[in-house]
Amino acid sequence: MQHDLFSSLDSFQALSVAASALLVRDVAGQYRPAEADEVLLAAQQLLAAQVRGSDLMDSPAVVKDFLRARLGNLPHEVFAVVHLDAQNRVLDYVEMFRGTVSQTSVYPREVVRDALLRNSCALVLVHNHPLC
């Protein structure tokens, strides 16, 4: 079977049409095609709700999936903290410091202060490197 640029573009266009089939309801109750940012935000909120206070963050794969959804598409660097209880359940996810494309400043005193205020038993410290 021969593949060329045009057949690849046709399949990409078919995927784009399928992706635009997702609908959202606006405040007036009318349905419209969802924007990509709306879909990503909804996915992040759903994932956060599933993880927060629910099952254990008991494997690297669970942590990776959670963080990939939160940090994967950010255009800037972020230092975040996942606060855990004594059973490694998520208490909260906090993006503490935001930087530019290539750097972010982190203040350890603020990280410790926030952990003490939330009564965290454990922390997952996270820092991304966005694609340029």
Write the layout of secondary structure elements.
Layout: H1 5-19, E1 23-25, E2 31-33, H2 36-51, H3 60-71, E3 78-84, E4 90-98, H4 108-117, E5 122-127
Antiparallel strand pairs: 1-2, 3-4, 3-5
Which short descriptors sum up this protein?
single chain, 132 residues, alpha+beta, two-stranded antiparallel sheet, 21% strand, globular
Radius of gyration: 19 Å
Quaternary structure annotation: single chain
| Overall 3D shape | globular
Distance between the termini: 36 Å
- Please give the number of β-strands: 5
Mean pLDDT across all amino acids: 78
The side-by-side strand order for the widest beta sheet comes to: 4-3-5
Element-by-element helix/strand order? HEEHHEEHE
Sheet having the most strands:
3 strands, antiparallel
